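quick one, 281 residues, struct below
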Amino acid sequence: MTQLPETTGIGFKRTHFDALRQTPNRLGFIEVHAENYMGDGGPPHAQLTALREEYALSVHGVGLSIGGAEPLDREHLNRLKQLCNRYAPDSFSEHLAWSSHGGAFLNDLLPLPYDATTLTVVCDHIDQVQDTLGRRMLLENPSTYVTFETSTLAETDFLTQITARTGCGLLLDINNVFVSCTNHRTDPRAYLADFPLHAVGEIHLGGHDAEDLPSGPLLIDAHGSPVADPVWTLYAETIMRIGPRATLIEWDTDVPALSVLLDEADRADAILEGARHARAS
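---
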């Protein structure tokens, strides 16, 4: 099984293609959203084919609806298999969320209750994905804005049981941890202390928006700004605990020049390198 290099990457945007080709050896990998490459050809595939010759590749799904109550969409899953067969990515990941129901596809990643019934559904879906793709997948912890009274498990316990039952790995989005814990008035360090860090195969870092409400701050996982300082701190603390991991800079809206993303990637690389030196000493 291949895996991403333990360095930094960025989410590839097609407007950065020329600049990226002119900036070799600055990144360890690129990541793309699977659903943007499910057609048969055209400029998107021409660009990705060229970049795949130079970079390790992470394919990140947003539309499988892993947490949905209904069966997975077989047509969507088969298109995903074709994509993975075509590019042989070093990693495939999806979200702990649902986004479709009754034939309708929603442009959002929606939360789910953490209980025994949902756990069985999610594990069955992950087994199906891994069997179909013939590869281990990573599951990303969500950013959430509500909790369910019916939940009987903490999110970290839910994720721990998923990894034990399915053998999947985890994509730890540290911005999502900070967003969710801030919104729910809980401690992100306590969350990370309970997180099954041994299963982490990739880390995401991104920006968020903040709104001041009478009840306190509300954070939105917007991916349209630099990584916030508290998220960098949590990231550095996590890397010192578990060692270097492949780390992605996510920036999906109000996308800046490539140089801005490279600066963010350099900051993550410095933290990774510091952890390497600390472990070697």
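Residues 8-280 form a domain with the TIM Barrel fold (CATH 3.20.20.150).
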